[in-house]
Amino acid sequence: SITGEHGVGEEKKCMMSKMFAEPDLATMQRVRCAFDPLQLSNPTKVFPAPRLCGEKPGEYVAHPVESAGLAERF
């Protein structure tokens, strides 16, 4: 688990992809959009922009450290 508090805040949202697969994150975003389509409840607190309701995430681009073979994507 990446958190034991009430939720995932700004400092932990970048770790979500280490814990959950992309389809899981997409499902979580769809559920959130279903209950809060105008994103009035804690905007940007869990899912980073530009992942807005109805938008598709961009293509994955490797970080330079990963491209150099110094790190791997989980």
TrEMBL record:
Keywords: FAD, Flavoprotein, Oxidoreductase. GO terms for molecular function: flavin adenine dinucleotide binding; oxidoreductase activity. Its cofactor is FAD. InterPro entries: FAD-bd_oxidored_4_C, FAD-linked_Oxase-like_C, FAD-linked_OxidoTrans_Type4, Vanillyl_alc_oxidase_C-sub2. It holds the Pfam family FAD-oxidase_C. Residues 1-46 form the FAD-binding oxidoreductase/transferase type 4 C-terminal domain. This is FAD-binding oxidoreductase. It comes from Candidatus Acidiferrum panamense.
